[in-house]
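6-phospho-3-hexuloisomerase
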Amino acid sequence: MTVDLYSVKILEELQQAAIQLDNGQADLLAEQVIQSNKVFLAGAGRSGLMAKAFAMRLMHMGIDSYVIGETITPNVTENDLLIIGSGSGETKSLLSMAEKARSLQASVAAVTIFPESSIGQLANIVVKLSGSPKDKSEGHYSTIQPMGSLFEQTLLLFFDAIILRLMEKKGYDSTTMFGRHANLE
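Predicted structure tokens:
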């Protein structure tokens, strides 16, 4: 197969994943983002990169957002939200963060393939995304892509769709967002 045909197949997989999103859970997450004082993002590996991209867009909206592990990340309080992107929902470091956030009465949202996972069970809000686990022996969702690629791509698309929903709720447009774009580049 050629690169262009691989790209078409990936887009088809992403379209199927998008169709399966639960709008109710997505709207709950968007509302929780609006109601929270600060929003914290966490993920491991490529999922963590998608979380960072989402944190940046939240910042462009004027929402106090932070990536767990960065040196400027403040403390979590009961008025805050921790959003964890984890395909498996079992990554030990992320599970530990969810447990700590809950012990501090912060809200926790999990975006995962497995709502019944340990992180999913701790979360106040769980958004199920399509994807294939890294371990194909679990045989969850068929994809031509390696490892967790479909989940990670779907995670980025989901986060971008949440941004569009938040922009709609707040009456923002790209000009509003660009006003907070980095200007020391």
